[in-house]
Amino acid sequence: MNNRRMKRNALAQRNRKILMAVLTVIVLGAIGIGSFFLGEPQADTPSRTESAKQESFAGKVYSGFKAEPVEVLEEKTIAEGIVEDAREKPVKQTEEKAVETETKVVTPKEPVKAPEKDLSLMIANAKTHVYTLYTDLEQGSGFLYNEQGDVLTNAHVVKDASYVTLKNSDGQEFNGQIIGISEKSDIALVRVKELAGKTPMPMAAEEPKNGTKVIAIGSPEDQANTATEGEITATGASFSDTYEYTNMIESTATLKKGSSGGPLINAETEQIIGINSIILEDSPAMGYAIPITAVAEQLKEWIANPIEYEEEEVVLPDVKDSYFDEELLGVFIQAYYELLPYSLNDSELTYYQAYLLPGSEGETDGKKRVEELSDVNKVYDTIKTTIGKVEIGEEESTVEATAEYIYHDKASNETMSETETTVFTVVIDEYGDYQIKSMVSEYNK
User: Is residue 51 pLDDT above 50, yes or no?
Assistant: First the structure.
């Protein structure tokens, strides 16, 4: 019996040794497998993140490179917006300099839609036609009426003035002379010889209808190109004060002191329909404008028979010569980019070209860039612009700007983002306006 017990004990010990050996092999194997998954990937084996980056661009063509087709991951990888450009180095557009462009998938809060004509468009388009007026008595607004350099404003802005000075949105100042002023209607015409030859905005030939969307632009409190939007609520209103106001246009576009003489613009046709003139104390939310059609004949007469001045009667104060300003240059380039989406979505809308110096490299390159970006499968949203380094010179200045184009690609049903950095050379033209002489970016080097 003792012998059997000793044999059983020996057998149990041997079984325990075998069991321990098996357990040791299992543990060592598990440790080895864990080390494989936690360790750094091999240099020649892309990680899953690297693969995802490569696969996100499969079969698509972007600025500067083409991604070869590979097996695509789940669609949610792109939709969640976690995929980024997998390129390690910028792709070169030429041998001289690397391209600074990045195209990536983005996840917008709302679907991208083509921007509609809005306040920013009206301001950017009208900025070179609207002026701030100063006299020794008043400050008001006015706008270019014809190619003779005549600026239309309210009579109460320039009445009894010893001199009239005008300033454009780029800070250029001009001397003006009153060539016509009414004692009955609140209108006056000021001629600026330096503006002769410049094309004005179109004037309406018919009276507007109720419900028409409008934009009022002027310089309230000496703030140039301030705009308010609203709609026409009535026509035919009449008031009597120092002047007789008849057949006035009533709108919800708010006016303030200093807005007098500025244009009221039809937001759809972009035609000037009226001259912003008064606010009633008991109805401050409403603005009233003199219809442009109602004064056309009087203006025609003044243009044909302007007031003549004796030399000793003319007062010409010193005005500031054309100059570059860092802040104004930045605003100018931002306004240029605000106009681009409209042209990218509709080739007939060429507002941006007013910012390009005619006959210059800037005009050629600007038009070329729009042609390159335009695509029937792309719907562009507003362009986000960041102004960088600005260098001021005597004859010209440079402005560096980084622009992010966001668009919806209808072919892939994805919203994409593309960024470019451009250095603009800006000059001041014969009318005192900033103009783009050249633009240097990765697309035209």
Answer: no
Structure tokens, 312:
């000793």
Measured distance CA(230)–CA(213) in Å, rounded: 6
Question: At residue 405, what are phi and psi to the nearest 5 degrees?
Answer: -90, 125
Q: Which helix (H) or strand (E) holds 335?
A: helix 326-345
CA distance linking residue 149 with residue 131, whole number of Å: 12
**Strands, DSSP E only, in 49-137?**
61-62, 65-66, 102-105, 130-135
- The burial of 366, by beta-carbon neighbours within 10 Å (0-12 exposed, 13-18 middle, 19 or more buried), is given as buried
What pLDDT does residue 24 have? Answer: 52
Q: What is the residue-wise DSSP string for 372-403?
A: HH--TTEEE-PPEEEEEEEE--SS-EEEEEEE
- In this structure, what DSSP letter does residue 92 have? B
**140: alpha, beta or left, given left = phi > 0 and alpha = psi -120 to 50?**
beta
Find out whether 274 and 264 touch, Cβ atoms under 8 Å. yes
E-assigned strand segments in 219-357: 226-240, 244-251, 263-266, 272-280, 283-291
List strand residue ranges (DSSP E) for 252-331, in order: 263-266, 272-280, 283-291
Token pair 């300099």: residue = 97
Sketch out the chain's domains with CATH numbers. 127-313 (2.40.10.120), 322-440 (3.10.450.50)
Q: Which residue has the higher pLDDT, 21 or 268?
A: 268
3-state secondary structure of 13: helix
pLDDT, position 273: 97
pLDDT given for residue 87 in this prediction: 28
Cα–Cα distance list, 129 to 125, 146, 287, 290 (Å): 8, 10, 21, 18
Q: For residue 122, give both structure tokens.
A: 């009206």
Q: ∠ CA 149-163-277 to the nearest 5 degrees?
A: 70
Q: What is the DSSP letter of 137?
A: S
**Both tokens of residue 156?**
């109460």
| DSSP string of 294-305, one letter each residue | HHHHHHHHHHHS
